[in-house]
Design brief:
five-stranded antiparallel β-sheet, 10 strands
Amino acid sequence: MTDYMKLSAFLVTALLTSIAVGLMSYTLVNQSRAPARAMQVAIFPTGLSKAVLSRSSYSARLSKDPQAMPTALERKLAEEGFAEEPLASAAFPVMFRALTVNGATDRASQFLELASRVTRRENLVNVMLIDQALAENNPRRAITLLGRAMAVSYEMRSFYMNRMAAATGSPGALEALAPLLGNLPGWSTDYWNAILQVPAVAPQAGELRLRIAGPPWNLREASDTDRTLIVQLGHANHFDLAYDLARSLGLKAPPAGAFLRNSDFSHAPQFMPFDWELRQTGEIGAAMERGSQGLFISSLPAANGVTADQLALVPQAGRYRLNWKVSGIAAAPGAMLKFRLTCAERGKGGTPIAPVTLSEGDGSETVIVPPSDCRWYRAGIELDTTQSDAGVDVRLNRLALSNDVRRSDDDQKTAVQH
C-alpha cells in the first residue's frame, strides 16, 4: 500500500470516527432534552432517550387523567430503555404502573421501593410513593416522603403541597408533621399557604401550629398565614382552639375584669376575630386612623349593618357594665349607634340580650347576660341610618365591657346588713 493510500485510509477512518463521535455526542446531549431526535440518530446510547420519551408521553396523559395506565408503546420503550441503561430512572414510573396493571402489586411495591433507592430526584417515583403511603393509610410515611421529595426538588412543589395539605387531616399526621415544620424547612410558608386553601383541615392545622409554638421548637412569632388561620378557625366556630393559638402567638388577655380587647381603639387589630374586625361595604365603612385613638365610622343614609365586632369570652351569666364615648351621632338626627352582645356558639344561647343604644358623649349602661351554656359572645357595633336623611360620620373613642362594680358593691352592702 502506497503512502498515499495509507494517508487516504487514515483520513477516511478519522472522518468516520469523528462523525460517529459527533452522532453519539448529539445523542447524549438530546437524550433528555429531545429524546425523539436522539432516537432518530440510532447511535448508542439510546436507552435513556427511550426511557425519557416513555415517561414524557405517560406524564402528559397522567396530567389529564390521574388513573391513566401506560400504553403498550410506552411500556415497550421503558423496558427497552431500562434494559439498555439500568440507571435510566425515567423508565421507573412507567414500569411500576405496568406491574400494577398485571396485578403484581407486591412486586410493584418492591420495585417502587428499589427505584426510590436508585434516585430521589425522579418526581413521578416520589409522587407514586406518597400516593401509595396514603392509600395504605400511613400518613407518617407519606409526610416523611413529602418532606424528602421537597428537599431535593422544587419543580412540583405546588403538587406536593396539595398532597401534604390533604394528608394533614389524617390520623397520626400531627406527630409526623410537627418535627418537620418545627425545624422551619424552606417550604414551610408554601405549606401554610396550601393549608389555607383546604378549610376542612383547619382544626388539625391549628393543633399543629399550636404544637410547634411550644417546646422544643417555640415558634411563637405570628405570621400572616397564622393570623388568617386563626380567623378561619374562629369563623368555623372552633373558638377555643383559635383562642389558644392566638394566645400562644402573642394575643394579650384583656385587663382584669374587662371582656373587650382594644377598648380604646388605640392599635390596629392584630388577632381577629378576638380583636376588632372592621367591616367595609359600599354603604358603611369603619377604620382606625394611625396615630389617633378612635374608631371612625362613616355611612350613607338609609344604611344598616355591623361596622365592627370581636369575639369575647364571657364565661358566666351576670350583670356587666358597658362604658362608651361617642361623638358625631347627634349631628345626624334619626341615626342610631348600637352595641349588641349575642352568643356565638350555636344552640347554646339563652334569652336574647337587649342591644344598648350608644348616645352622644360619655355613657354607661348595664348589660345583663342571662344564664346559659354559652361562653363565647360576639360583641358587635351596629350603625342604623335608615331613619336619617343624611349620611353620618361617627367617632367612637371608647367601648368597654367590664364587671358591674357598682352592682357588686351593692350586693356586698346588702350581705353585711343581713
